[in-house]
Hints:
This protein has helices spanning 2-24, 29-48, 56-66, 80-107, 113-124, 134-158.
Amino acid sequence: MRSMFSLLFLIFAFSHKTNSKKGSDLSDPVLFCDGCFAMMSEIYEDLSKADKSLKTSELIVQTLDNVCNVQRLRRYKFSPPTQKRVCDGIVQNHGQPLKKFLAHAFESQKYDLDYLVDEFCYKETQACEGRRVPTLVQREERERMRKQAEEKKNSKTEL
């Protein structure tokens, strides 16, 4: 009996630790913002390529079933496993508002990326309130550095 109680305690402790970790990345505002941006970017891709003959509800279920896939989350600032945890946390904690938002966006044909990010990440969840999306900042910095290197290369060839 005692060993069974110990086993149950360990299972409870492990499951509690696992569950609390899932939502913990949402408490980090930088990760939450970037994860929201990544999620909206992937959803935008899905909606853009969507079979328009599908019912809106089917399309949303299909999109949300695939959006938090680690393979899809490789092009953002933070690691794919981190992005997946944030994405899963958003679905878990904001799933119903997200579904309603996507239904409205799809039915009204308002689903360009800027709209999705602005309405969901800045207004609905406030994940990015008061900050810029880390992945976009990183991309801008890389572009600036690429241009500087190109200018430096061109100035050397002119001499």
